[in-house]
């Protein structure tokens, strides 16, 4: 199942990241167009991140992994990256299995502690 592609890019608000909805199973023929969409969204918004809504992709498989890897590569070549919205827990497990890491909405950035987390400097001393 696949839905038709709209011509052109949707209106993009500068305060919110661009969102690319990935509908249903994506065929190999559609991958190139989606990579072009990611590059175009990065160019238009200059935000550095495109949020890919993967909730409608269905059960994860190697085709989904290939799609996400190609979208990330296209984004990196354009000076940005992709972030996943609404990923299935099985997709996280599959991506970990093949050695790919993607940031998902709602997760803390790498090297940044989650909000509200305090660390002790020395055992027995109060948290900073």
Radius of gyration computed on alpha carbons: 17 Å
Strand order of the largest sheet: 1-2-3-4
| Structural class label | alpha/beta
| Spatial gap, N to C terminus | 52 Å
| Percent in strands | 5-15%
Total helical elements:
3
Main beta sheet strand tally, sense and closure: 4 strands, parallel
Low-confidence stretches: none
How many distinct beta strands? 4
Q: Summarize the amount of helix as a percent range.
A: 25-40%
Mean pLDDT: 80
Q: Secondary-structure element order, as H and E?
A: EHEHEHE
Shape: globular
In short:
Helix 1 (28-45) packs parallel to helix 2 (62-77).
What would your notes on this structure say?
This protein is α/β, with parallel strands linked by helices and 128 residues long. It is 34% helix and 12% strand. The protein has three helices and four strands; from the N terminus they run βαβαβαβ. It has helices at 28-45, 62-77, 89-98; strands at residues 18-21, 49-53, 81-85, 103-104. It has a four-stranded parallel β-sheet with strand order 1-2-3-4. Helix 1 runs parallel beside helix 2 (62-77). It is globular.
């Amino acid at each position: 199942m696949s839905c038709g592609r709209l011509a052109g890019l949707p209106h993009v608000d500068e305060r919110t990241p661009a969102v690319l909805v990935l509908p249903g199973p994506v065929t190999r023929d559609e991958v190139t167009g989606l990579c072009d969409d990611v590059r175009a969204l990065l160019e238009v918004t200059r935000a550095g991140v495109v949020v890919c809504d993967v909730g409608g992709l269905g059960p994860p498989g190697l085709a989904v992994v290939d799609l996400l890897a190609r979208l990330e590569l296209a984004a990196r070549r354009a000076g940005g990256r992709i972030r996943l919205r609404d990923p299935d827990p099985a997709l996280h497990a599959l991506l970990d299995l093949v050695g790919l890491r993607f940031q998902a909405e709602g997760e803390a950035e790498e090297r940044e502690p989650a909000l509200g987390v305090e660390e002790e400097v020395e055992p027995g001393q109060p948290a900073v």
